[in-house]
Structure formats: structure tokens, C-alpha cells
Amino acid sequence: MSKGYHIVVCGGIVPDPLQRLEPVSTPSGPALRNEMMLPAVLDPWAASALYEAAALAKKMPESKVWLVAAGPKAKLQQVMMVTGQKVPFELVAIDAPAGGFTESFAVAGLLAAAIKSIPGLDYSRLLVFGGWESASRGAGSTLQAVGELLEISAQFQGVDELAVAEDGSFTVLERVEGGRHQVSKCSAAPAVLGWATGNLAEPPNNPQVGMANMRAIMPALQKAKAEKLSAEGLSFQHVALPAEQRETRIVKDTPVDVIANEIVDWLRGAN
Amino acid sequence: MSVDSTAEQNRQTMEADIVCVGFGPAAGGFLTELTRELAQDGGATLQSSVMPGMPLQVICYERADDVGFGVSGVVSRARAIRTSFPELNPADVPMAAEVSHEEVLYLLDPGKASRRSALVRFADTALRLLGPVLPLKDHAFKLPYIPPFLRKEPGLTFSLGQFTQWAAGQVMGSGMAQIWPGMPVAAPLFEGERVCGVRLLDQGTDLSGAPGDGYMPGMDIRAALTVVADGPVGAVGQALNRKFGLPPGNEQFEWAVGAKMVVELAPGSGLKPGTVLHTFGYPEPEIFGFLYVHPDNLASLGIFVPSTFGSPARTSYRYLQQWMKHPALAGYLAGAELRSWGAKSLLESGRRGEPYLAGDGYARIGEGSGSTNMLTGSGVDEAWATGVQLAQAVCELVRAGKPFTKANLEAAYVKRRRESWVEQEGRIAEKARDGFASGFSAGMLGMALAGFSKGRLGWPVKLKPPHERLQSLEQFYAGRISSVEIERIRRESRERGEPLHDALMDRVGFEPIALDGKLFVSLQDALLVGGKVQAAHGYANHVVFTHPEVCSDCGDKLCIEVCSGQAIYPGVNGVPAFDREKCVHCGACLWNCSRPGPDKTRLGNIDFRSGSGGLHSSQN
Amino acid sequence: MERVLFLGHTGENGELGRAALEALHAAAGLAEELGCAFDAGLVGADVQKAANNIGSCGASSFFAVSGVDFAEARYGSDVLAAEALCRKSGATIVIAAGTSRWMRVLAGAALRLGGRIDTHATALGAGQGAVSISRWYYRQRMEAQLSRAVRPWIIVLEPGSAPAWQGEEKAAALVDVPVEVTDAAKRTSFAGYRAPQASEQTIRPDAELLFVAGAGWTKKQADGNIHIEEASKLILDFMHKSNASLGSSKSLVDLQGEGQAVLPFLTHLNQIGQTGATPRHAKGFATCCHGEEPHVVGWRFINERRAVNTNPNCGWAQGKADVLYVADAFAVMAKVNELLS
User: Fold this and answer.
1) Which fold has domain B3-83+161-251+352-428?
2) Pairing state of beta strands A170-176 and C93-97?
3) Per-residue confidence at C258, pLDDT binned at 50, 70, 90?
4) What's the CA gap between C66 and C73, in Å, rounded?
């Protein structure tokens, strides 16, 4: 393959997974309590996709990586201060709500429009990456819609590995039931790949990458247009934390043999 | 080829005009002022020397994983902050409110657990006897008069985390400076006596710092000016102190560890936004407490455990919980839930602990530069002010074409600082805390003397480094627990692998803390629930026991007892072990070692280096 | 008037899997509640056997998209099949199981149909004549009840959320729905399955027990040392003896990518919790776990839960586990293995 890929990574921002999340009702629908105060990160699966994209671009000369990210501008800027140090990319920013209760198809519409507006994007070399689900909406339905809007019918979800052959075809490993991977071969780009975790560790923070990225990140953020997301016909009756509290029996100061016997009895269904 | 030489070959270098270490309130003031000047200037007079034709190239590296992680609730008169933002509307900054009500409470001991001197006991008895005619309620005496030096009105209560994020957003949005969180700075770079930039921390190492998979040597950032704003326990500030020492007569012996929380108050707590409560007297007389109320039923609260408190088995977390149980506070906190938790060291030496503020190629701002005022209990605004002063000085020097030499920085920056209210008030406060070295009563008297005499009077005392002040457990609990019993408790705690301080506090009568999973949680859960503590892999341990043989001979192990995250724990051959995944980077171990550092360059036998990770909460 | 369509695809044995039968149960129940007709739409190489298996389910029609192009999961052909079945049925509500095959394509089909989709639904009903569902947000941390006005509405049901449909086998009259699969849609070809490279097959979705190995196994123990080999042996021994499925906490899996000391047989696929799976098992047994990941998120669908942990104040296990044993997991598991022998 003479030319590399044009890889567009779709990645939203989500609250740091360790934060306590609570829903609240607002006039515009459900939201998170203190949503703007919660530290945000690039969606973990989308982050895997971004690292995979960067690794692929490094292997394939003449490749280029874009990150198309939607979120409130101030939050997006903050996340980019961290993400921007990881791998080289060009940001395409969309100033829009990033909460989990937004409509996946509305988000997909914004993402697809943003991708279509990237100057010089070569569809014959296009790989659209993203997380197979977000840690916010957690639906796994955005990326497929982006692919449809871009008329891409080679799509993969739960991807852990992408291997490119000499002839430009590639093999994809997708997570399926039973702890297995489905292996598929695809003849050529364009394709949509929703990544699971992949196999790459989080890259170290690289100050030079940060400096290079930031030259385009700040202008991209300044250019970002404020967009609204529609939720036509969707009504939430309620949103709640699962209120499950168990009576925990605590067994301590008990000999190991006694504990082990009790566990084995339980495993065997005796109690 | 050795790994080291390969590493040196792979070590990259980047050039900037100004590199700033740490992003707290001092760097916030510095970068806010500087980026405004740069934006107005448009590169006309503030030109870069490394990228000719461009404005000054300014980079700031922050150690924590994001800006505003793990700092504290604050009340401040916010004079300097309001000068930078004259139109500041508290509603624009999450959790900010105008101070609406202030109280100072002296907390009596509701039980008999607190260690109170005869004088204090006498005062307590007198207060209780006069209770019917005094503002005494819930075992607390409300001071009828708040001295002017303690008053915060008109001021703001806010979350330093949220404010810092807000300020960082403004700076980044200007496009005139870059702030990079998650990038610890390992050390300053020296060329002789001149600082010529900083070295970032190596990544992809094992816990000892040896290169592993994905090794990336920390980059050298060379800059004409290094702005040191990494706080009192920052690695760069410490390295400068070691190299240059402190000016004659100055020392950094006074410290405190602040343990704090952000809680969500139950509806109907009776506390209005902007309420400020300060306390002293309980759980031990010398432990100060605070509670600041933010909008939306949020409150910051916490305590300070000072280095003058002589117990060799002190714990800020248990004391914080004990303080929250005091009847004067428990009512407000009924039904409250923990949202965030953290801890931090404060350099309480203030002006007395001032290092050299400038040298060739560097300048120091903020708490690590001795700007905190311990009479007024104020540090954030002072730190911000020093940052603004440096930014003004930098612009003056660049416009005049003068290099960042010690002499030029002293003429432009240090002079500004000396002429400012930060210096004047810092001088008044200089001896305000000295009395605490002689005990709680002397401490309070000393503060009053300094405050009312505007610094002319103070408690006469010769200050000692923290390790020289420590008492033995037997001395500390003399008359309350026998040495035989102390030995038994010590042995049992060791066998159970449980902290000694909890057992001792239980023994002297502090009510054991019943955990409710909401406000009162175990320290380990506070790390997870409140602090959300994380540590990325691929970095070396940042707490290092420099001379293991000293640790082996040490019977106190104060570092283990005092560790805010239980990250330091008993190790092999008596040398404590360190788990960086629990470290909240409070830095208390730096000044809570009971053995002097054999090489005399540190407060104790512990090297607190630059490290990654820590708290992931920005509500603090 | 609503019309319900159940969508199913065959598995490797040519039959519908358990998750599909659960979705069928939910679809038939909803149609009954609404008093409306429902159809079945099946996809696979040959779906007659699957159709006969559910022949008595009450579906008005059994629509089929079948043939070699539909033998294996592939976006290009499956999305055409789903779209064609929905159009043929004219259904307003489409119910399918959250299998990897349907999760891959149904969002695309919904977009083609001008409809909407919800996934990870755990319950559905038609109170007061309006269809509403419960589904998860924020990775199983919040549950919402919602309804939609836009049709068709594709609802993807989380496996394990409904009883499986049971009924007599009956010859079903299939209505073939022709679908032309263009070359463009066939750019992807199926090339088999790959099991994890680990020597052990440790993920067993059908196991009664989920055994969760927390990060504590790889931490320093009381003697100040790490005992990875001993931990590995204890866990693998237990897996052999109990036939459990193995889950791990996030931190343990992440360590692997960082070259840290880890249990060698764990992969990303074992991960449960916030960024991993939320498996369904009758029993869950957590060892050396501390933190929200395993207990709160990863355990959401575990019925009986027990934990071994050295911290009696572990706020995560308390209120989440039925029994918390405060003990050294190394010692407990060694004895458990001995007893299971």
C-alpha cells in the first residue's frame, strides 16, 4: 500500500470513572449532579482507539490522525491538556453537551458533519475509529450511525486488533460471546472500527507531542461552533441509581479452616 | 553501552523562554498577568528569543494528573485575586461565595480524652462555670470578638481546585501559555550557579527508577527563566534550597498537615453559603479547624495538625473525624455526605521560611517562597500576589532587554514584593506562631501579641527542626498511659498490622469512630471514595528512605503513623515500605521523620521527590 | 397501533441462543400487553429449524433472510437483513437480544429506517398503553425509564433480563424476504474464531460462579514480598476445581499492559466492572478486591455474593456482598482448594 490511512477517531469526554455519579433532573432532561465540576477524561475506549490510530499511523507512512471530539468547550480544552500529550493528532472540536443522556443519533449527526468538513479527507483511505461504547451513554450505537451517514458498510465493533496486510486488506479481531474473538478480513478502507481496549498501553506523556498538538488544538477550540443536540420524541420518566443495599454479614477473627469450609459449602449449594 | 549513557543520548531537549513549575495559585497569578500582557502586546515588545518573531514562549508543567486536583477549600480576602479580576462574579466560579458570616469557636473537650495542660483545664472549667452568661453552646465558646487580623470579610469562600481550574481555563484560552498537567518536573537544571531550565521526570521506569518497557527519559526544558511555583514540598524548590541554602536567619521548621474534606450538607443544615467557622481547642488544643460553606449545600472542612504538636503517633485523618464529631459541628454535619477528601502540607514558617526569591535564571513564588501568612491564616491570595508581581517584573525586564539575572530579578521582582502588602503583613506575622513551640497557651498568647502589636512583639523562643521537638510516646502520654501499657499497645498494634495512633486514641478516651459509609468512612475508602487516588504506572517511587540503616534503628516510625494515605507501611528489616498507589502527595513524610537526615540536606531521612498521580478530585 | 417484531439470528448450531429466546419472550409479552400483532424475523444460513423451534410462539408471520451470505456475522449483510425484515413486517417496535451480532448492526439499521434505538434495555412494558423501557446509562451505574415517540423503535435487550421463551416445537411457514447483498457489502469476509491465547479458557459465561481476582493478589503480602506464582497456582487450581468463570478488576488488567507483576493468565477479556464486562452468574466470589469496580459495577448481575478481604471496613464489600470474610485470601483459597479436591 503506497499511501497510509486517514484515520478519524471519534472520542467524547466522560467523567473520570472513579468519580461518584448521581443523576439529577433539569428542565432539559436528566443530567449529572455537579456535571461541570467532575473531572473529565477522554472516553476510555475512545482513548484506546486513539492510541491504536496513532500506532497504525506511525507504521503506515503518509497516514494522518484526526480526533473529532464533542463536549463543552471549557471541558474539552481541559481534557486536551492531558490527551494532547499522548500521541500526535489534529483536533476537530465540537462545542456541544457531552452528557450520557444525549441522543446517540444526534451526536452521530454532529460527528459525521464534522468529519465531512475535514479538508482533504480521502474516503478511499478513511478509517473511522471510536470506542465500541462510551462510558457515559454506554449504548454502542453512535459509531454505526456515523458510519451509515458516511455510507461506510464495513463496520466492526468490540475490536481488539487490526492487522494490515501488504495489499491494503486488513484483519480485524472483534469480541464476541464466550470470551472469543471473531476474525474478519476486509479488502480495503473505508471502514468503521469501534474499539474495545486493544492491546496498547497508555502512551507516556510527551512534551514535544503536546507542543506540536497544541498549535492546532487551541485554534480548533476557538473555531468550535456551539451546537445543540435534539432529542425528538424522547422522554425520560425517571433516572436513578440502582438502590441495592445488602445486609452484609462480616465474618472475622475466624480460623481459616472454618471460613474455607463455609465457602465450600456455599459453593456446593449447601447453604 | 550502558543504559545510562543510552538514556542520556535519548534524552531530548526543548527550548522555551519561560518554564513554570507547578500550577497552583502562584502560577495562576503569574500566568494570568503574563498572558494578558502578552495578548495585549501581540509580540511587539515581549518577543521570544527561542522563536524570534513570536511572543514569549511560556510553558507550565503541573505534577498532578489535572490542574486543581487535591487542593483545598479556602476563605480569602481575595485582594490580589480581585485586583486581577475586578469584575469577578463569584457565581462564575463553581463553589465560590461571598463571605457572609464568621465565627471563631473555642472547642471544649466534651469528654476527657484531649491532652490539656493545667492552664487550659483551668480555663475550660472557668468557661463552663460561666456558661450561663457566656456564648457557650454545644461545648464550644464563640469568641465575641474576632481580631481584625483574623477577619475575612469582605472575602470569598471557594474551592481552590475549582478556582484553579477556572483560572487555568482562562490562561489556556488566551493561547499565550501552555499548561501541561500530569507532567512532574524532576529537578532544576544548573549551569554552575545559574538555573537554565528543568528536567522532567523519567517515564517507563520501574519503581526504583530503572528503565523498563517504554522508557522515555524525562525531557530537558531549557529556558531563560525558570519560575518555581511547586509549593512547599515541591522537588525543584527543595533542590534549590539544598543547593543555595536559605538566607541567614531563615529556616523552614514550622509545618502543618491539613486534612480536609468537601461534604454535601443535608438540607436544613442551617448553614448559609459564605459562612466561615474557625475552631481551636479540640481534638487537641493546638489543632485548628475550619468549615467554609459554599453554594449548593457544599462545605469544605478540615483541620491542621502542626509540627509543634509533639506526639510521635499523630494522625490527621482520625483527628479530623474526631473533630467532626464535636457537638459544635456534629449538628451541622448530621446527614452530610463525603464528596471529596485530601491532605496537604503547609509551610507554616511563612516569611521566616523564605528562601532566596531569585537567582540567575530563576525566581520563586507562592507558598514555597514563604508567602503564607500564619497570623491571618491566609496563603492563596498572597501566593497569587507574588505570581502577579513576578509577571510584572518579567515584562519589565523583557521590555528593557535585560536578562533574567539575580540582580535584575531582585531589582524588578523582589523589590516589588518587598514593597507590597504581602511582605509587610508577612513581617508582622513572622513570629506569630513562635509561642506554639512552648505549648498551646503560649502559642495563643504569642499570636495575640504579634497580631495586636503588628509584629513588634512575639513569644521569645528558639525554634528547632521538627525532629528535635518530638517527644517519645512515654513522654507524650506521661500520667495517662503507663510505659508498660504503651509497650503492650505498641506490640499489639504491630502484630495486628494496625496503626498505633488509633489504639492510643481509643485508650485515652476518644470515642471510636463508627463508620457509616457516608460521612465517616475508613481511610482506605476515603482514598477511593473521596480522593479517588490513582497512580499511573511507569514512574519511580517518589518517597525514598535515603539511609535505610537509619530507619532500621528507628523505633518511632512516625512516617508510618503520620502518612495521610497509609501509603507508608512497615517493611523489611525495619525499613518502611511505600505504596505509591495510595500516596496523596501531602508531603507530610518530608517533615515528619524523627531522625535527622545524615547528609544534613534534608529535614529527615526521607527524600520526597517529584512523582506522578495522587488525588483525582477537583472539588477540594 | 403498534406492531412488534422479534429479531433473531441463529447460532453456530443453527438454533436461536438463549439470549434470543429471552428477547422473544419479551417481544411476545409486550405484544400481548399491547394487544397487537407480532412477527418473528430470523437471519442465518438456514433458519427453518430455528423457526420450528419457536413455531408456537404466536407470531403472525415468520420472516426469514437466509442463505450463505447470512451464515456469519458481518455488518454489510446483517444490516441489510435487519432493515429488510423490519420493512417487511412494518413493525413499530423491534426487539432483539444484545448479542455481539445484533449490537454490531442494529444501530445502523435503525438509522436506515429513520427510527431510533436503545440498547442495554433490562425491562420493557406498556403501562397505560405507552411502551417504555428501562435501560442502563453510565456503564450500569444509572438506570433510566424512558419512552419514545419516533418509530420504528429498536430495543436491544440485555441478555439475562427476561426469562427465555419456552414452547412446543411447531412447523413454521417461513416467508422469505429477499435481500440482495452487493459486492460492496461483502468487502468483509468471516475468517473464523480465535480463543484467547492464554493457556486456560477462563471465561465461562454459563458457569454458575464468577470468581473475581482483585489486585490484592499481586500486592505485597504480610512478609513484604509479592507472591505471583503462588497466587497464580491457587487461582488456577480453584478454576479447575470449581469450573468458575474468571473475572478481574480493572487495575489488575491494566497492569498487564505496563509490564508490572500480574497474574499471567489474565487478559482484557477477563476484566469486569466499569470498563469491562458486567457478567451474569448465580454466584460471585471476590478475593482481594477493594474498590468500586468489582463490587459495585461488575457485580450488578450476580445473585449471591461473597468476598474475602483483609479489610473489615471495606466500604465497597459492605452493603454489596452477602458475606465478607475478613481473612488472608492466600490461606483461605489454599484450604478451599484442598477441600474441593
Assistant:
1) FAD/NAD(P)-binding domain (3.50.50)
2) unpaired
3) very low
4) 12
Which of B587, B571, B582, B591 is closest to B613 using CA atoms? B582
Give B-chain residues touching A26 at CB under 8 angstroms: none
The DSSP code for C285 is E
Q: Is B294 on the interface with A (CB under 8 A)?
A: no
Of C224, C258, C313, the CB nearest to B537: C258
Which SS3 state, helix, strand or coil, does residue C124 take?
A: strand
Evaluate the CA torsion angle B590, B592, B598, B603 in order and state its sign: positive
B175 chain-A contacts, CB cut-off 8 A: 218, 222
CATH number at residue A10: 3.40.50.620
3-state secondary structure B211-266: EEEEEECCCEEEEEEEEECCCCCCHHHHHHHHHHCCCCCCCCCCEEEEEEEEEECC
Predicted model pTM: 0.90
Residue C110 host element (H or E): helix C100-112
Q: Name all domains of chain C by residue range, CATH numbers in brackets.
A: 4-186 (3.40.50.620), 209-340 (3.40.50.1220)
| Bridging pattern class, strands C153-157 and C302-309 | unpaired
Q: How far is A255 from chain B (nearest CA, A)?
A: 15
Contact at CB, A222 and B65, closer than 8 angstroms: no
Q: Which of C124, C146, C265 is the mutation pick for testing A, counting most A CBs within 10 A?
A: C146
Residues of A in contact with B35 (CB under 8 A): none
- pLDDT tens-place string over residues B567-612: 998 888 889 999 888 899 999 999 999 888 777 667 789 999 999 9
Number of domains in chain A: 1
> In B, which residues are within 8 Å of A20 by CB distance?
339, 529
Contact by Cβ (8 Å): C282, C303: yes
Neighbours of chain B (3+ CB pairs under 8 A): A, C
User: How close does chain C come to B532, measured CA to CA in Å?
Assistant: 10
> Which pLDDT tens digit goes with each residue over C191-250?
999 876 545 667 777 788 999 988 888 877 777 678 888 999 999 999 988 889 888 876
Q: How far is C198 from chain B (nearest CA, A)?
A: 21
Interface of A with B in 81-120 (CB under 8 A): 81-82, 85
